[in-house]
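# step 3/5: fold
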Amino acid sequence: MTIASDDIATARRVLETEIAGLRALADVLDESFVATLDVIEATKGSGRVVVTGMGKSGHVARKIAATLASTGTPAHYVHPAEASHGDMGMITPSDAVLALSNSGETPELNDLVAYAKRHAIPLIAMTARAGSALDRAADVSLIVPDSEEACPETLAPTTSTTVMMALGDAIAVALLERIGFSTADFQQRHPGGQLGRRFVKVSDIMHGDDELPLMPMEAAMSDTIIEMTARSFGCVGVTNGSGQIMGVITDGDLRRHMNDDLLSRQAGELMTADPMTVRPDILAAEALGIMNSRSITSLFVVDDARPVGIIHIHDCLRAGIA
């Protein structure tokens, strides 16, 4: 066996060991998981979830706190040692504490656990040791399987941290579904990066009423051309007496009708009727797809057939949507 194949064999052994730990976790989930969700949901409105842990459990705790916060459950991480030196003030009676410790005997957690008990702050334990100090102190205990670590001689936490991380994800997603967390809520918490751009709506980047290039159907083409030039969208919307958009005139329409009587005609005569429009609540990526498929650069945004905005392909590009 070559060195490369040895490495791959090791990697597969690690992955299979951790997969076995996750399967074991799925098998032991019980009513304590539901009780955990109940405790956390009770903090909504006035409190948040304080996630804590030491060492590798602390790194997992930070990730769990971040996942909870980004999916509709306010949460933050508190370092247990720092809590003993003033950061206990970051924990309020309206909060719930989620403490991670594989052994359940982490001494750095003692002061924080005592503080939670003294102030009647709900304490959720995540540990592999039933009957440990942390388990006995907790109001709810999530006992994870005592699975084999993937690291030889258990020199470093591997399976145990993977299992805790996955259990944190399960808590966050179950809470997300309980509270009906929507894509709009998600976008508000992820305004930057690729995730945020995926959920940008047309209403977020469209140009509003004061920028709309609109003319009535009876408007002279001379005035219509002036309006089109002033607004710089390469088009103008044509409306009826009720303010509903009936058609659109583009630069291409002007070129096709360039003759001696162009300026003597009315906008309603030259417009392309029943133009493609979009709603303000659709995703900007969908609007971009429409523009690309139809080889156009602008779309009027309508509500009940009345124009409320306009979106240009450059608006999508500036927002990082491609």
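# step 4/5: annotate
Residues 110 and 163 are 23 Å apart (CA to CA).
# step 5/5: archive (pending)
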